[in-house]
Amino acid sequence: MNTASVIPSRYRLVEMVGKGGTGEVWLADDLMLDRRVALKFLTAGLDDGAAVEQLMSEARAAAALDHPFICKIYEVAELEGRPCIVMEYVAGETLERRLRRGPVPVAETLRFAEEVAEALEAAHKRRLVHRDLKPANVMLTDGDHVKVTDFGLATRLPLRLERQTGSEPGNTDGSTRMLEGTPAYMSPEQAAGQPVDRRSDIFSFG
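The structure corresponding to this sequence follows.
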């Protein structure tokens, strides 16, 4: 795809802003609603129709999240024959980039941590597990608040798991679709390819 491409008369691509193991992220203009959006085109596992459908299904579940500290998912669609997640565009920088500039003052650190915790709590109440929480997936907005991103690839836990108590993470049957995440932030059960639950996010949160 090239910049200035118009996708089904709705989105105009501006520039690629990120590329990872699961896909490419493009800054785009929503020509219908006159707003900036981010388009995440999924590339991982596209030869597996069932895996793609599961990714899209989980992204639709994550689209129900509506929280000030979570990057909003607007739409899940197929654009130019590729699965795509249409997300809120967040202007600012990642927490990862901010940390590279030097230590963050204690007061800011505590506020950022509180906001990330609130975002996780909101997701967990809807049985969604992020699975890849890390500084690169936490945006700091121009207003100096956080937006947790990449919930589009979260796992939704079966309802019955929410009613279980005292079970070990490895004994649940949360998604084991593929080994995803970042090794430095993975919980032990996730690194071992075992099912995950909310405690895995808490481990990544630190």
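The chain has two domains: 6-88, 92-205.
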